[in-house]
């Protein structure tokens, strides 16, 4: 199952998920060949980031909006990026946050688990209802695919809806978590986690321990590190013995070179350094717990 692969990769390479939220503003001048197309520029940038990190990170998350924004050429870069990651033996999470129902969801599943945009794991938004998850489950069961479903997100606005009290005095995200856990139990890997995981932002800490204990069979995608303020000692609360989750950083890694005077010349070195520092920060946070 995909979750066993991801668990194994985390065991060998740590918890850093590199977020390829790539836009032209992040591309250094020397990669901006005037004659090259947007497709080539975005893909070449991603390829450099991937080549600099693939031996030290377990997976990549590619946020589709950054490619959609550049139209067809952007989507070609998206396709090439997914293929490059998968062909080089790594795991790709397509951050598409879909959340529609029925026949539409079936087409989303086909669009992102087959064909041009095939990925290993996708992100979903369950807040339209649990029936919006069902059309993807066949791919989890029969095609070795995985889902990370939004539970408690990293943004400030998470409190607007996800924290509302339901069923007396229970937080909505806990209610959603319990339901997802039930579905997840049907797709358990040998590693003790399900191919259906949850997205929990690494920026709110108060409930981290409760969420980790309550959803003990669920692997977490943990965004919010770096640019949004999350630290290694924060996100470590969502891990179990250093595994059970991957921590995403997008801007914090792919724009790391901008902090240095010689950043453009040593682009690859600084990208790798940012991923290695983050890996160290998370693992020292885990040791303290
Ligand atoms: O599902 C996500 O990946 C996600 C969930 C969440 O709660 N918060 C969150 O920031 N994300 C995504 O994680 C990435 C964070 O980017 P940086 O803040 O640049 O590291 C973006 O692609 C967001 O869309």
From TrEMBL:
Keyword Lyase belongs to the record: yes
E.C. number: 4.1.1.23
Catalytic activity: orotidine 5'-phosphate + H(+) = UMP + CO2
Domain called Orotidine 5'-phosphate decarboxylase: residue spans: 15-266
Classification via InterPro entries: Aldolase_TIM, OMPdecase_type-2, OMPdeCOase_dom, RibuloseP-bd_barrel
Molecular function per GO: orotidine-5'-phosphate decarboxylase activity
EC top class, as a word: lyase
SUPFAM superfamilies (alphabetical): Ribulose-phoshate binding barrel
Active site residues of this protein: 97 (proton donor)
Pathway as given in its UniProt record: Pyrimidine metabolism; UMP biosynthesis via de novo pathway; UMP from orotate: step 2/2
Biological process according to GO: 'de novo' pyrimidine nucleobase biosynthetic process; 'de novo' UMP biosynthetic process
Key words of the record: Decarboxylase, Lyase, Pyrimidine biosynthesis
Family annotation (SMART domains): OMPdecase
Alphabetized Gene3D superfamilies for the sequence: Aldolase class I (3.20.20.70)
The keyword Lyase appears for this protein: yes
Family: Belongs to the OMP decarboxylase family. Type 2 subfamily.
Stated name of the protein: Orotidine 5'-phosphate decarboxylase
Species this chain originates from: Sporanaerobacter acetigenes DSM 13106
């Amino acid at each position: 199952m995909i979750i066993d692969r991801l668990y194994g990769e985390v065991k060998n390479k740590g918890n850093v998920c590199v977020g390829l939220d790539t836009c032209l503003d992040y591309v250094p001048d020397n990669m901006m060949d005037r004659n090259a197309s947007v497709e080539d520029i975005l893909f070449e940038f991603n390829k450099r980031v991937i080549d600099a990190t693939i031996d030290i990170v377990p997976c990549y998350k590619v946020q589709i909006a950054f490619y959609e924004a550049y139209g067809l050429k952007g989507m070609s870069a998206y396709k090439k990026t997914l293929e490059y990651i998968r062909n080089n033996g790594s795991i790709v999470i397509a951050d598409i946050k879909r959340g529609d129902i029925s026949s539409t969801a079936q087409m989303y599943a086909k669009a992102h688990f087959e064909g041009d945009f095939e990925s290993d794991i996708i992100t979903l938004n369950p807040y339209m209802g649990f029936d919006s998850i069902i059309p993807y489950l066949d791919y989890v069961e029969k095609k070795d695919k995985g889902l990370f479903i939004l539970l408690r997100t990293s943004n400030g606005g998470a409190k607007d809806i996800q924290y509302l009290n339901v069923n007396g005095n229970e937080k909505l995200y806990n209610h959603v978590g319990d339901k997802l856990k039930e579905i997840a139990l049907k797709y358990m890997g040998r590693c003790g986690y399900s191919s259906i995981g949850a997205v929990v932002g690494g920026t709110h800490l108060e409930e981290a321990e409760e969420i980790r204990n309550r959803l003990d069979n669920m692997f977490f995608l943990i965004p919010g590190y770096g640019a949004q303020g999350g630290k290694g000692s924060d996100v470590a609360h969502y891990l179990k013995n250093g595994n059970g989750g991957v921590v995403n950083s997008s801007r914090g890694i792919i724009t790391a070179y901008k902090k240095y005077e010689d950043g453009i010349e040593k682009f690859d070195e600084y990208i790798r350094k940012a991923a290695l520092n983050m890996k160290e920060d998370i693992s020292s946070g885990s040791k303290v717990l």
